[in-house]
Design brief:
mainly alpha; 16 helices; two-stranded antiparallel ribbon
Length: 344
């Protein structure tokens, strides 16, 4: 079905591709505009961002597919500590062992919760996993080679925000936050005051038993790479347009604002919905415009909360829980990045 939809879309795009040289030939002004210095600069910036980020996106997709196909969720659940503090700490660092991109994180965690994982551990893993992992660490370090403090601040703040929200969920969330299907359920106590609902029937109607072989692995990896690369292309294009067509003085004046710079970068991260393996290269384009705090807020908020992940969260968790989770993420990321900027 997905391939058929792509082919149908391709049938509309092919005639549009043939229209481009026709328009250039028939409109000399358009040809001159296309060859203008501003557009040449925009294309150079766009290609540079994309080529820097694409290898890390591919690496993240391959590792994500390996985790999905060859690592048992039951094994992860058995290794989860029962103590809430220990559970939060382990979940916050679990991304080092399981470097799953945020796009594949929510379905995996949903299955783990159906098998009995407490919500506070699951939420901590969802928030920290896409950031606190070796792939994102390496990508951020290479994107900011002369500013290692940005990489350290990103990892530290992401872990602190994820652990804090995990403990908030442990203390205040007493109901199962999942959107459960209409099946018979059994209550299982996971910690005092919280009851985990365990379904008798299949927990998710969309989870199918796929054949786990190398062919299906590469098919899944290819589909995920194509699906994620469009977000990278859009993000790189928007960044290139901003760098080319918005004057540097306007960006500097915006970056000098005590609050506006944080609001701009956090909103920018939410709208772009970039993969955590590639967003550092987009943020590096603003390294000479914004201070440390706004850059860190962009790098931490994006993998935790963006447009595409909000839709996935709403399809998995209750609406009220997602709203509270979003407000907590925004508040803690803003406060933490502001404090980092003040101290460093």
């Amino acid at each position: 079905m997905k391939m058929a939809a792509n082919l149908k879309l391709l049938s509309f795009l092919v005639p549009c591709a043939f229209l481009v040289p026709v328009l250039i030939t028939m409109a000399p002004d358009l040809k001159e505009a296309w060859n203008s210095e501003a557009l040449q600069n925009m294309k150079t910036v766009f290609i540079g961002i994309f080529l820097e980020a694409a290898p890390f996106l591919l690496m993240g997709v391959l590792l994500s597919s390996l985790m999905q196909w060859f690592v048992s969720e039951e094994m992860v659940r058995k290794l989860t500590p029962k103590n809430p503090i220990g559970g939060v700490l382990v979940a916050g660092l679990l991304g080092i062992i399981f470097p799953i991109c945020e796009c594949g994180m929510i379905p995996v965690v949903r299955r783990l919760m159906h098998k009995g994982m407490p919500a506070y551990i699951a939420v901590t893993f969802i928030l920290s996993g896409p950031v606190v992992n070796p792939i994102v660490f390496t990508a951020t370090l290479l994107a900011f080679p002369s500013h290692p403090e940005i990489t350290i601040a990103r990892m530290g703040l992401a872990f602190a925000v994820a652990a804090s929200i995990g403990m908030l969920v442990y203390v205040f969330v007493r109901r199962n936050p999942l959107r459960m299907p209409k099946v018979a359920v059994t209550e299982v106590k996971t910690h005092p005051g919280f009851k985990m609902v365990q379904p008798h029937a299949h927990a998710n109607a969309h989870d199918h038993n796929h054949v786990k072989n190398w062919r299906s692995f590469f098919i899944h990896a290819g589909d995920e790479f194509v699906d994620m690369s469009k977000y990278l292309v859009i993000g790189a294009l928007i960044t290139a347009c901003i760098q080319t067509f918005i004057s540097r003085s306007d960006l500097i004046s915006l970056g000098n604002g005590p609050v506006a710079s944080y609001v701009f970068m956090m909103g920018f991260a939410y709208v772009l919905s970039l993969c955590s393996t590639s967003d550092a290269f987009v943020a590096s384009a603003f390294s000479h415009t914004f201070a440390l705090g706004p850059l860190v807020s962009f790098l931490v908020l994006g993998p935790m909360l963006d447009f595409k992940s909000t839709l996935m969260l709403l399809s998995t968790f209750r609406t009220r829980f997602v709203i509270g989770l979003s407000l907590a993420i925004i508040t803690l990321v803003f406060a933490g990045s502001w404090l980092i900027n003040l101290l460093v």
